[in-house]
Structure formats: structure tokens, C-alpha cells
Amino acid sequence: xKVQNNSEYCLGCGLCQVYCAAAHDGYxxxxxxxxxxxTPQARAGLIKKxxxxxxxxxxxxxxxxxxxACITGALQKDExxxxxxxxxxxxxxxxxxxxxxxxxxxxxxxxxRAIKCDLCRGLSGTPACVAFCPNGxxxxxxxVDRP
Amino acid sequence: xTLSMLTPAFTVGRNEERCIRCGVCVNQCxxxxxxxxEDGFMWVTDKNCVGCHRCAVLCPTQALAITExxxxxxxxxxxSSASLREIYAQAETGGVxxxxxxNPRPYRSYFDHLLLNASQVTNxxxxxxxxxxxxxxxxxNQAAMLGERExxxxxxxxxxxxxxxxxxxVSLNVQKSLARAAREMATFWNTGEGGLHSDLKEYADSTIVxxxxxxxxxTPDYLNNAAAVEIxxxxxxxxxxxxxxxxxxxxxxxxxxxxxxxxxxxxxxxPHHDIYSIEDLAQLIETLKVATNYQKPVSVKVAAVHNIxxxxxxxxxxxxxxxxxxxxxxxTGAAPMRIRDNIGIPIEMAIAQVDQRLRDExxxxxxxxxxxxxxxNSADVVKILALGADAVYIGTAALIALGCHLCQTCFTGRxxxxxxxxDRQLSKRLNPEIGAIRAINLLKAWEHEIKEMMxxxxxxxxxxxxxNRLMLKGIGLEQHELELLGVTAAGD
Lengths: 147, 492
Fold this sequence. Notes:
The structure holds two protein chains of two kinds. Chain A is of the alpha+beta class. Chain A has helices at residues 15-23, 31-37, 65-69, 95-99, 128-132, and strands at 2-5, 45-49, 52-56, 75-77, 83-85, 106-107, 114-115, 138-141. In chain A, the strands form four sheets. Chain A has a two-stranded antiparallel ribbon. Chain A has a two-stranded antiparallel ribbon with strand order 2-3. Chain A has a two-stranded antiparallel sheet with strand order 4-5. In chain A, helix 1 (15-23) packs across helix 2. The longest helix of chain A is centred in the N-terminal third of the chain and has 9 residues, at 15-23. The radius of gyration of chain A is 15 Å and the shape is globular. The mean pLDDT of chain A is 89. By secondary structure, chain B is an alpha/beta fold. Chain B folds into two domains: 10-95, Alpha-Beta Plaits (2-Layer Sandwich); 111-489, Alpha-Beta Barrel (TIM Barrel), CATH 3.20.20.70. Helices cover 30% and strands 15% of the residues of chain B. Chain B has helices at 24-28, 54-58, 81-93, 172-184, 220-224, 252-258, 278-291, 308-317, 337-342, 347-360, 378-387, 396-402, 424-427, 432-457, 479-485; strands spanning 10-14, 34-36, 42-44, 64-68, 98-99, 114-116, 137-139, 154-156, 160-162, 189-190, 207-211, 228-232, 243-245, 266-268, 298-303, 322-326, 335-336, 368-372, 391-394, 472-474, 488-489. In chain B, helix 4 (172-184) packs across helix 14 (432-457), helix 8 packs across helix 10 (347-360) and helix 11 packs across helix 14. Chain B is globular. The mean pLDDT of chain B is 95. The interface between A and B is medium-sized, with 21 and 20 residues.
């Protein structure tokens, strides 16, 4: 599964990033607390170019280069096919950042570890970006990409 | 001009405890009200705010509150603050004041002075969830004599249609939303005078195409790619004047659909220059019937004006199968404010008068009456049906369902909700999949409410409600108004 972007209806408002950041920052998706108490960082990147915008998020590749490249086994795939980072194991070598063919994986703000989309697997239900997109531009798609 | 005396209409309040500087308000406001500087300061330009609430609705922390700018003029019951502001604006620009949407002035709304009946003891009320309830409505000439060729009719499963709103005045996504909703709910949407976009041809069976004074996009294919054809003579928001789609809204796509040069003003003349009399109207109606091989009913839409019953009578005699009347609350994408606010009559009066006149003349059966202009909810629908309409058009209510906040600045083409604009980026803001669902939900909700109200009256078919003024009582109305509406006073 992956989050798919329909750039025909993407407004470029950036709410996906707001809710993504809040969902991953330990305050259970509480936007005000997450932003006022911490410095939350969105996993998904919103790209804007020539008045078009789209979300650059993980494709959760079938044969994921990041998993193959990870030197500590921090990058893993769960039973649903979601590629995620076990942050306890991540040492911040950022090999994954370099091998990701889509430029999705990024270093955390303090450069201590890598962060990426995990389809909000810790939370129940739909990923936050899909749930809160005001224009239905994001959807959870079944298919996966091959790099 | 050195100093503008126009102070802001609205002020944007920001709750600093809630604002997280995410910048959504900044990127969503096309009027550039919000600005986030490099130091993390948020700046607000109140005077640009039109009160459309886009920023407040999308703000993830509900940090924004938009209120009237708290600058009071000395209280004056005659010179309202709006009067002063309008004069300041005209003194600065020397122009006609433009505005959008419907007449907002505090004229009496007869809908709010009519009460509905309900059954008690002497006849049973009906529960629409347990018993069948019929809302199916046929529009057209139903006076065919035995042996005569049957006239084409429109079949509606709910007596509510979407008003004419042209591509150009509204975005294509608005039309897509309404077309899908009309097909799903077995009712009709109306192209307006801007032609039929190629993406919408698949909705032909749910489409009413309009022929207006500009004749934009009218071809034999256009006329036949529809369920009915409507001749637009007038519009409730601007009776007596034509239309003007400014060049900046005439994008390449709009131009192609309208069959005019791109980025040129699209002018609809005030009259149809081939209709200067009832006889001329009869000719155009006949022409359109011939062009569509007598397969489609022809509707004629006029604004409700002073002599509406005589006008409607003439239209029926000219061969109109449907007469659509647009009351003075009817909306527009752009109209001079003085025209919108001062011309026409209420739709309640117009329908009551026209229905009575057509009955008196024995020609009511050969036409269907469609009421438009200011239908706000299902109770308004029930009341106008009881006053004599066969169905209603909703425009403003449909747009509100799609996100319109009635800021009345449609004429700028900078609609933050992606509705009254042809800008590609702004149009994206209305996803027709979501829009269609919202419009369908609105119609379903109204349908259910109409059935509940009819059931309460002990009526199980909309045919028994139409023109049934015994179901209405007037409250707070003068004797003469009651007589004009054809109803008696509450308690009478």
C-alpha cells in the first residue's frame, strides 16, 4: 500500500504535512501541542513547481533499495508491506537517504536518524495525510511500485 | 487619489496560542490577506479580506476568527454604513458598483410569513419511512388531447433542479459536480448560457441547455445533446440587463466552449435581438422545437417583474412547455448592485399570481411552472409548490453545498473556493467527486424533509401538493398580501 497523489486536485495547502508531522511527534496527533511543545517534522514532502503541487511520499517499493542498503537492519518491511524504520536501530548513516530513488527519506532535524513515511502504522485507521486532505487529493492505494 | 476613505469590511483575528505558523492561510488566500515573514511574524491585511472564510475553515487549529471590522459610524437609521461605504467606493472609482450572488436587502420574505398545515384526528398523517410517497414530477405540456401527438416531458424524481450557471461564470468542476448529482438523483442541471463543455456531453440525459441572448456555443449538436432546451430571457438578479463575462475569465477552454475568441469580453445583449414581442418568442420556440425534432420540451426563463402574470400567459401561448420564473433573490456571478438590489418582485408573489392567471385562463395544464431565486431549504420548496410551482431551481443553495460562503465577490474571478472562477489553480479547489457527493446529500436531505412535511399534511403524492394553497396560512401579512398569495391568515 502507498499514499497516492492526484495532483489534479492537490491545492498545495500543506495540511498533509501539518497532520503528518503532528501524527509522528508523540502527542497523538494533537496539532497544537505537537507544534507548540516540539519541532515536529513532516515525513511527506510537498513539492510545488510551476503552480502544480504534489506530495513526495514513500512508494513502499516491493524490492526496496533502502532496506537492502540499510547497514543496521533498521529499515524493515512489515507483514502488510509497509516499509518503516526501527528508530532504535537507526544510527543515522543516511545510506537510505542516498539510495532512495524518489528522494523521500530524509534526515531528522537533529541529524540523529533517518525518517520516512510509515503509513501511520502506529495509529489506527487511515494515514493522517489521507484522512485530513481537504480536497480528497490523497488516497491509500493498494498497488506498489518497483524502483 | 491619495487617500482611500474605505476602511476594511472585516478583520481577521488570530489566536496566537493556537497559530502554529503552518502557512495554510497564507497559501490559500488568493486575496493575499495573510503574510508570514522570514522571522515567523504573521501579518494581516484586513482591507483585502472579503469574508469568504477559506482560511478559517482550513486552519488546522481553528486559530482564525473573521469578524466585522469594529469601526462604527455614528448610528444612523437612514444612512447605513453600507450606504456610506458605497459612496466612498464610487467617489474613488467613478464606476458602477459591481456585486455577486443574490439580493441581500431586508425586503420581506413571504416564505417566512407562510405556515404549513398538518393532519390531526380528522385525517391521518403519513409516515414516509413506512408508506410510499411520490415525488415524481413531470415537466412540460401535459394538455395533449386524445389522439394528439404526445408532447415530450421531463421526468424528475425530486422536484428540485440545479439553476443555470454557465461555464465561465462558474468553474467546470462546479458543472461536473452538479451534472453528476443531477444524474444520480434523476433530476436536471442547466448549462447556463456558456455552452456545453465536451467533458459534460455524457450527462446529456440530465442536462438542460440554455439559449440566451449571446447564443454562446449554440449548435444543432448542443441543442440535441440535452433533455430540454431553455431560452433565457431574464435573470432574477438582473432583470432587463444582459451579461458580461470579463475577458480575464474567458480562458482558452471557456472560449472554445462558447465559440468566441479567447481572452475577449463575452457580452450577452440585454434583449434577444430577434425577440421584440410574444410573436417573435413563438418563432424562436418553434425554431428550437424543429431543430430538436419536437423531441425536447422548450423552457423559457424570465425574471419575476411587475407584469409577470401577463408575460407568463403570453409565453405559454407562444408555445413554451416550461415557464421558469426567477425571483428577485436570484443570484448572479456579476451584476450592478443597484440592479440586483432594486429590481424584480418576490418569487412567492410571482408564482402565486402566474399560477392563478394560468388557471383562470384555462391554460395551466399546457405548461409547467418552475420557481427559482432564493429557495433556501426544503420548507421553501414545499411552500412554493403549494403556491403553484411544479418544481424549483436551486442555484445559491447548490453552490453553498459546494462550499460557497456568500462573500458576493464572484465578479472578481478570484473565488477562494474554486467556484466562481476559471483560474486553473483555483478551480482545483473543488474536487467534483466531493462536490457531487455534497450536492447529492443536499438533495437527498431535502427529499426526505419534503416527504416528512407532505406526510404530516396527509399528502402522499407531490401532485396533491401542487397549488394546494389550503395547506398554507399567512402570518403577519396584510389582507391585500394574503389575497395576492391566495392564502388565508393563520387562525382564519
